Amino acid sequence: xxxxxxxxxxxxxxxxxxxxxxxxxxxxxxxxxxxxxxxxxxxxxxxxxxxxxxxxxxxxxxxxxxxxxxxxxxxxxxxxxxxxxxxxxxxxxxxxxxxxxxxxxxxxxxxxxxxxxxxxxxxxxxxxxxxxxxxxxxxxxxxxxxxxxxxxxxxxxxxxxxxxxxxxxxxxxxxxxxxxxxxxxxxxxxxxxxxxxxxxxxxxxxxxxxxxxxxxxxxxxxxxxxxxxxxxxxxxxxxxxxxxxxxxxxxxxxxxxxxxxxxxxxxxxxxxxxxxxxxxxxxxxxxxxxxxxxxxxxxxxxxxxxxxxxxxxxxxxxxxxxxxxxxxxxxxxxxxxxxxxxxxxxxxxxxxxxxxxxxxxxxxxxxxxxxxxxxxxxxxxxxxxxxxxxxx
Length: 392
Ligand SMILES: Nc1ncnc2c1ncn2[C@@H]1O[C@H](COP(=O)(O)OP(=O)(O)O)[C@@H](O)[C@H]1O
Ligand SMILES: [Mg+2]
Known about the structure:
Blueprint: E1 2-3, H1 6-10, H2 63-68, H3 91-108, E2 125-130, H4 136-147, E3 152-156, H5 157-167, H6 169-176, E4 181-187, H7 192-207, E5 211-216, H8 229-236, E6 245-249, E7 260-261, H9 268-275, E8 281-285, H10 286-293, H11 301-304, E9 310-316, H12 322-337, E10 342-346, H13 359-363, H14 367-391
Parallel strand pairs: 2-5, 2-6, 3-4, 4-5, 8-9, 9-10
Antiparallel strand pairs: 1-7
Bound molecules: adenosine-5'-diphosphate (ADP) and magnesium ion.
GO molecular function, one term: ATP binding
Pfam families: AFG1_ATPase
Organism: Cellulosimicrobium cellulans
């Protein structure tokens, strides 16, 4: 059932389980403090004993919520500098924490104007570069907590590009410029258009005195490749590069959970039974969900999952259309942010999460996104199997 295969890992086939039990925050409500809930009034009323479908939820999300939602994911609700255990074998870890604590203090200080209203002292900008699982997201969320969630915006690269898509560039600048700190997790470099857009956005924010903190987007199997993401990052953000301070975070995957599973999808009956009458569970045919995702702006996928604790899908198959696959990647990120277990029943020749995308996609320009989604969905599907076992 569960198999540890280093060779498979090295070959980049399969996925890596990254599930870790969540302390405290696991049962927190889907909305974090300060988050306005989207109206889900146009969702089909729940039929007792039947799980509702994601495809019936049409979240209407006011722009204010898009901004209010820029918070650390539930999984990291309790992450703090004080809960980060720096490994003495890798001095860069303690160095990074110390530097980030200074940054938090500097950001929290009111911006000082020069004499006679001269130029403001420039706000700090840091980029954390390091391997998978060394705690970059833990540290980035800790920074946001240290500065204060009201004064910070926190999101992944994709969430910011989605925000620009939903609000427009200038409105996004205005909205984010009200914050003292903007955190961007997993800065992506695989789409030149998005990279240029984000560089422009960050430059505008830096010019307005907003502090910036970003992390590298490093894949589980991308040792070596991902470890020197800083070079590519600095080259791609061009003029902005001079302002960023690179913090290397060396080390190993903290969880040491490099487990590759190769378990088969669940039988459809088991999936249906596990979610029937379960509060907070949804049940969708995969094609219905893919169709629905094409109708909902990706910036609203978070709201789509309001109150959702378990997601069940039937008829899962290989996605052959790139745009559908990329939307699925965004949904998987949002599910992962919230630790939502996913139960998957396949159709036809579907052999498990790793056959979700085509070989061509896994070799193409977006392979980083696809492998991240496989890694995350693998973890959530493993949690889904536990849900199915518990209800059998
Ligand atoms: N040094 C550490 N001390 C405590 N927890 C850690 C440490 N490093 C990582 N973690 C935990 O391990 C998990 C993976 O870390 P994460 O921040 O997601 O890594 P990365 O973003 O670098 O891939 C998280 O749950 C995080 O809280
Ligand atoms: Mg991370």
